[in-house]
Amino acid sequence: MKIVLTTCPSRNSKKITDKILKEKLAACALEIDSKSSYWWGKSICKDEKEKLIIFKTSEKLSKKLMERIKEIHPYSTPFISIIDLEKVNVEYEKWLEDVLGG
User: Fold this and answer.
1) Fewer CB within 10 A of the end CB, N or C, for the chain?
2) Which CATH class is domain 2-100?
3) Where are the domains of the chain?
4) What's this model's pTM, rounded to 2 decimal places?
């Protein structure tokens, strides 16, 4: 099982999450309100209304999910990360594989 993370403007999170779930690239998505501060050009920017989206997916779909997020993401340079999970309870992992087609 893999976790794929991204951040996006709050107004775009539902669209991204819905597309990913409908395309069965992830079995679950968690949206968490967040605020970002970052360098852009020569200035520090602050985004007060962002979401951190946590997608739960299979190992075989994780790279495809990452590429799909890039395609539909509104940022020109989005943050997207794949995290390996060392251990997940067997029941949850089975549910995820059942949802995503094994």
Assistant:
1) C
2) alpha beta
3) 2-100
4) 0.93
